[in-house]
């Protein structure tokens, strides 16, 4: 099984490499930023990307969205220190095949990782229950035609796909106020019948609305 490690802490990457190689995994690369993780995933096509959430350049959630949408054969498993429910739900909605916390025992970590290649989610029972509860919602309305977006909204969409997702960062990038940036994002969500920015990015990539060659 080929694995790409994406984490900005060198010591943790070294420890993970030693653990994984001792268990018979092949570590094909190490990335220290989210954008580097996406580029290496495209080039190396690993079976699994172990993805940290808090990384420079492009955070783990945005990197997971890009990899999951563009490389469906590459499975992303989040490995993080965060125990926040919002991070868990956002990671799964972004396409992650699992969510593991860094204080997990080594044996259990390896067992869950092997299960991913057999179609099993890498989730502890507690986290799996949280995800099932979160996802147990009525069917959502089917998104409308992407052509409903204006030229300005398409520009905002392209910026979101680039990994610039906060209102402040969007406003700075587009040269508008934060309220204007928020207004455009809300219009995009309403027109596509989507609920958050992660879903917008995933929808845009799945339907080829923007180019990922950036």
- CATH hierarchy, class of the largest domain: Alpha Beta
Helix/strand order: EHEHEHEHEHHHHHH
**Total beta strands:** 5
The total count of helices amounts to 10
CATH architecture of the largest domain: 3-Layer(aba) Sandwich
Stretches where pLDDT is under 50 for at least 5 consecutive residues are 139-143
Provide mean pLDDT, rounded. Answer: 87
In percent, how much strand structure appears in the residues?
Answer: 5-15%
Q: What name does the CATH topology of the largest domain carry?
A: Rossmann fold
Notes on the structure:
With 214 residues, the protein is of the alpha/beta class. The chain has 2 domains: 2-135, Rossmann fold, CATH 3.40.50.2300; 146-206, Orthogonal Bundle (Arc Repressor Mutant, subunit A), CATH 1.10.10. The chain has helices spanning 10-22, 34-44, 60-70, 85-93, 106-116, 125-135, 151-161, 167-174, 178-192, 197-206, and strands at 2-6, 26-31, 48-51, 75-80, 98-101. It has a 5-stranded parallel beta sheet with strand order 2-1-3-4-5, with helices on both faces. The model is unreliable at 139-143 (pLDDT under 50).
Task: Please write out the topology.
Elements: E1 2-6, H1 10-22, E2 26-31, H2 34-44, E3 48-51, H3 60-70, E4 75-80, H4 85-93, E5 98-101, H5 106-116, H6 125-135, H7 151-161, H8 167-174, H9 178-192, H10 197-206
Parallel strand pairs: 1-2, 1-3, 3-4, 4-5
Helix pairs in contact: 2-3, 3-10, 4-6, 7-9, 8-9
């Amino acid at each position: 099984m080929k694995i790409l490690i994406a984490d900005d802490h060198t010591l943790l990457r070294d420890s993970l490499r030693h653990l994984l190689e001792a268990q018979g995994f092949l570590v094909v690369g190490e990335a220290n930023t989210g954008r580097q993780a996406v580029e290496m995933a495209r080039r190396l096509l690993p079976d699994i990307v172990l993805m940290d959430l808090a990384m420079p350049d492009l955070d783990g959630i945005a990197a997971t969205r890009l990899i999951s949408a563009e490389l469906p054969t590459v499975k992303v498993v989040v490995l993080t220190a965060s125990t926040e429910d919002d991070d868990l739900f956002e990671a799964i909605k972004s396409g992650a095949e699992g969510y593991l916390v860094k204080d997990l025992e080594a044996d259990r970590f390896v067992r869950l990782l092997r299960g991913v290649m057999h179609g099993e989610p890498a989730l502890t029972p507690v986290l799996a229950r949280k995800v099932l509860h979160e996802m147990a919602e009525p069917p959502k309305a089917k998104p409308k035609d992407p052509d409903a977006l204006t030229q300005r909204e398409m520009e905002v969409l392209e910026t979101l796909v680039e990994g610039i997702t906060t209102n402040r960062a969007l406003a700075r990038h587009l040269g508008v106020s934060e309220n204007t940036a928020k207004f455009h994002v809300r219009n995009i969500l309403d027109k596509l019948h989507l609920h958050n920015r992660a879903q917008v990015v995933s929808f845009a990539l799945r339907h080829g609305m923007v180019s990922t060659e950036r």
